[in-house]
């Protein structure tokens, strides 16, 4: 609705202010204390808007939040996460800053902008005495960046009860395309055991876990098949402890991306069945598929078309993209629930130092979400 856009644009500074406050409250996934401070701030802001907020206490990560707004039989689920990949202290190195129409800061795009958009969309509705057409439940979890281990069940339970799911992760690229397909994500840990020996006196008695790991790394990377959209990446390697010892131990962390379930199963079993090359070495692999691939379905296309009628009057052209990054939308999509992802901030560089949002797109996304929720 045009009025929502006018209102949001005239409150653009407030929206950016909310976002700046959240960027300056750091929330690295493994820093529970800081993340809980941000969670408390978010809870307070939603309560000021008349929402009911429930905390889901956690021991290792920040407490998750469940925000309820409005009434009605059908439920719309909105997914946000408050954690970031940026270690506490990053804000000192790269403080929030504005440069022309771009705003920079750790986690600004991924995905504190999404949380600000949700808050201000509800505020916009309130200011117009409008209520969401369906009951809205917003899950704001705090472990998305490490695979949503403690929040996955909650997301799946709520997705099953929902008529539609919107994920406020950033849109793709500077045009903010909606993400109608996402690759599945696998996470693995490879442990290699060898035998220690003095590197100078009796190297023949040792079995080098580092040498064995080198073989494993080359094999794992050879599983990459870009034509099929499959990639395997050894992102972290550690092994040995001193220069003059045949290394008895090595460890690696492996990331897998796939576009279909069939490919996920095929490559997953290749990775899990890794065998040693050096005699006497042992290789153990744990892990598996974390987020199932989100394939573009008829249901997604229908939902996208149905929200285009709210975007058009606002002058927003909604394009779509298939991306490699994972999100919680995939848990919902795997259950067959209609899902649209990428309705959050518009910008570039998630997980990168140059991460930014386009400031003038913020009120436009606020108005879009308000229109979708109000159905007008
Ligand atoms: Zn994210």
Structural features:
376 residues, Aminopeptidase, 6-stranded mixed sheet, elongated, binds zinc ion
Task: Characterize the structure shown.
35% of the residues lie in helices and 25% in strands. The chain has 376 residues and is an alpha+beta fold. The chain folds into 2 domains: 2-182 and 294-374, Zn peptidases (Aminopeptidase, 3-Layer(aba) Sandwich); 184-291, Alpha-Beta Plaits (2-Layer Sandwich), CATH 3.30.70.360. The protein has a 6-stranded mixed beta sheet, sandwiched between helices. Strand 1 (52-56) and strand 2 form a beta hairpin. Helix 1 (2-10) packs antiparallel against helix 11 (361-374) and helix 2 crosses helix 5 (108-127). The longest helix has 20 residues, at 108-127. 45% of the residues are buried. The model has no long low-confidence stretch (mean pLDDT 96). The chain binds zinc ion. Zinc ion is lined by residues 81, 110-111, 144, 169. Zinc ion binds at residues 81, 110-111, 144, 169.
Outline of the structure:
With 376 residues, the chain is α+β, with helices and mostly antiparallel strands.
Protein topology:
Blueprint: H1 2-10, H2 12-24, H3 32-48, E1 52-56, E2 64-69, E3 75-81, H4 90-93, E4 97-99, E5 102-104, H5 108-127, E6 135-141, H6 152-160, E7 164-167, E8 178-182, E9 184-193, E10 197-198, H7 209-222, E11 231-239, E12 245-246, E13 249-258, H8 261-272, E14 282-291, H9 298-311, E15 320-323, H10 329-333, E16 339-341, E17 347-348, E18 356-358, H11 361-374
Parallel strand pairs: 3-6, 3-7, 7-16, 8-15
Antiparallel strand pairs: 1-2, 2-6, 4-5, 5-18, 9-13, 9-14, 10-12, 11-13, 17-18
Helix pairs in contact: 1-11, 2-5, 5-11
